[in-house]
Amino acid sequence: MCCLQFLRGSSKPSHDTQLTTSMVQSNGENAQRNQRGLHQIRSAIQTRSLLAKKRVENITKSDVKGFFTRNAFVLLTVAAVILGIALGFALRPYKLSYREVKYFSFPGELLMRMLQMLVLPLLVSSLITGMAALDGRASGRMGMRAVIYYTTTTVIAVFIGIVLVLIIHPGKGSKDEFIKQPIEQINPADAFLDLIRNMFPPNIVEACTKQFKTQYAKRVVHVTMTVNDTVVTLNGSQVITREEMIPVPGLVNGVNALGLVVFSICFGLIIGGMREKGQPLKDFFDCLNEVIMRLVAIIMWYAPIGILFLIAGKIVEMDDIADMGGQLGMYTVTVICGLLIHAVIVLPTLYFLVTRKNPFVFIAGLLQALITALGTSSSSATLPITFKCLEENNKVDKRVTRFVLPVGATINMDGTALYEALAAIFIAQVNNYDLNFGQILTISITATAASIGAAGIPQAGLVTMVIVLTSVGLPTDDITLIIAVDWFLDRLRTTTNVLGDSIGAGIVEHLSRHELQKDPEVGNSVVEEVNKKPYRLICQENECDRERPVDSETKM
Predict the structure, then answer these.
(1) Which residues 6+ apart lie within 8 Å of 483 measured at CB?
(2) Cα(267)–Cα(282) distance, rounded to whole angstroms?
(3) Which parts of the chain span the membrane according to its record (predicted)?
(4) Residue 175, pLDDT score
(5) Are 540 and 365 in contact (CB under 8 A)?
(6) Is 549 inside a domain boundary?
């Protein structure tokens, strides 16, 4: 019996044998699964290769001609940027005088003047018609979504800037290699109050040409002394006086965009609430907006020429490029990395997560506006081109663009917020200041708030950065350390600002699609043929031969 039990027990597989067998089986299944996955990938690559080969073989002269016709603006603008850079560096050895550089840059100056000419009527008409086309609830929800988007992207941009500057540490070294330049001194409290004052201009006509700005004047104070319980005022050779700087109200040239935005939003909401009575005004501003957009279409043909001379003239004018080495070069690289991360990774990811559509197809339709922003260095001057790209290329509802873009061009400055936070910590590193967590948090909050006050004009970030530096006790004079490269970085952060505004319009439209469908407006909503695509870019050439409906955009 014992022998039989032993033999019977030995015939059963042991626990280790079962475990080994199961591991072998699982490994075999994993290998088969991996092989199936690789086979699917190979099949997909072969299919795509065959489709691409078939498309290349079927290309005709008319297809090539049609491609260049559809993308003429984009191709001409890209060519203008390349030629501008090449021409600028080719002319640098000739050491042109200041007058010669200004003459050379004159075509670019004309483009800036043309675009700035359209900013004011476009800003007012687009906001008024956009707000009038929506009911109170729809505009409130859309505004809340836009504000949440603006706040989220700005906070993310500031966080990226702070993390990069702390990791790369570009300010390590000596402060002696920098060349200081004079800069206007501004009190942070006065700058904040000026922001509030400009929101409510006393004269709406004056707001079209002037902004309120606190200026400073010297005041002589006579000291009165009490001697033997008698009050006497010293005079003659015994007069004791001292000077103090006092704030006085002043005006500077420039469109008060913030005040016009506040006025236009309120004006448009009231017109929309008046229904039939407000229809004549509504039709007037809608017609004005259409006229401005047609003018933009004309100016766009001149834009490549202007951008070419703007970029070439700036390259000829800039100081010795060798000065950008060392700390200043590392600072420039850090800012560029931060802007690229925000523009290429963060913003497209947000767009995809919300809309589930391919963000790079959306960005491709904005290429003309982005290159214009790079050339003009002004989000406000780029506003007409941004409208045209969003409404005609990306088919964003006009009621959304007319509300989101003007507000975004005024208060949504992702690139500026990133730059201000990064530059403040860079200046602290140059001065060997160790910032604690509380000071870094203060910089992040202040940079977010200060970017709202940065008007969409060139190099406005240098002015608002005084507020950021003062908030943590850093020397405001050291802003001059980074002026040498600000002309270049200003163009990159302006491009980031324009991209952030545009993606915000796409996200807000997607989130507000139900309200927009319930409240259709003749002449204010974009009605397009379902199967007709507005444009066809290089990135879309891998699509199927048959046209897809607009609603079924390529998914990532």
Answers:
(1) 181, 183, 462
(2) 10
(3) 72-94, 114-134, 146-168, 255-274, 295-316, 328-353, 360-383, 403-428, 440-457, 463-489
(4) 53
(5) no
(6) no
Coil/strand/helix, residue 248: strand
Give me the mean pLDDT over the 343-371 stretch. 94
What average pLDDT does this structure show over 133-137?
69
User: Do 162 and 425 form a contact (C-beta atoms < 8 A)?
Assistant: yes
Answer for the pair 310, 376: CB distance below 8 angstroms, yes or no: yes
Per DSSP, the three-state class of 535 is: coil
Q: 305: closest CA among 539, 476, 26, 77?
A: 77
At position 327, the amino acid (one-letter code) is Q
Residue 155: pLDDT above 50?
A: yes
Q: Which amino acid is at 240?
A: I
The two tokens of residue 288 are: 């004005």
pLDDT at residue 162 greater than cutoff 90: yes
Question: How much is the average pLDDT of 272-298?
Answer: 87
Beta-carbon count within 10 A of 87 CB = 18
Range of the domain at 241: 215-248
Say if residue 351 is in the same domain as residue 224: no
Q: How does DSSP assign 47-103, residue by residue?
A: HHHHHHHHHHHT--HHHHHHHHHHTHHHHHHHHHHHHHHHHHHHHGGG---HHHHHH
Query: What is the tally of structural domains in the chain?
Result: 2
Question: Are both 165 and 229 inside the same structural domain?
Answer: no
* Count of beta carbons in the 10 Å neighbourhood of residue 171: 23
* Secondary structure (3-state) at 366: coil
Query: How many Å apart are CA 337 and CA 24, to the nearest integer?
Result: 48
Q: What are phi and psi of 80, to 5 degrees?
A: -65, -40
Structure tokens given for 477 = 């004079």
- State whether 307 and 233 are in the same domain: no
Least confident of 65-74, 182-191, 295-304, 371-380: 182-191
| Model confidence, pTM | 0.69
Distance CA 171, CA 425 (A): 8
pLDDT band at residue 549 using 50, 70 and 90 as cut-offs = very low
Start-to-end C-alpha separation, the chain: 70
Confidence of residue 548 (pLDDT cuts 50, 70, 90): very low
Amino acid type, 442: T
Same domain, yes or no: 325 and 411: yes
- DSSP 8-state assignment for residue 253: E
69 bridge partner residues? none
* Together in a domain, 381 and 453: yes
CA 58: distance to chain centroid?
40
Average pLDDT over residues 134-157: 85
Task: Determine the pLDDT at residue 436.
Answer: 81
3-state class (DSSP) for residue 243: strand
Burial label, 193 (beta-carbon count in 10 A; 0-12, 13-18, 19+): middle
Instruction: State residue 359's pLDDT score.
Output: 95
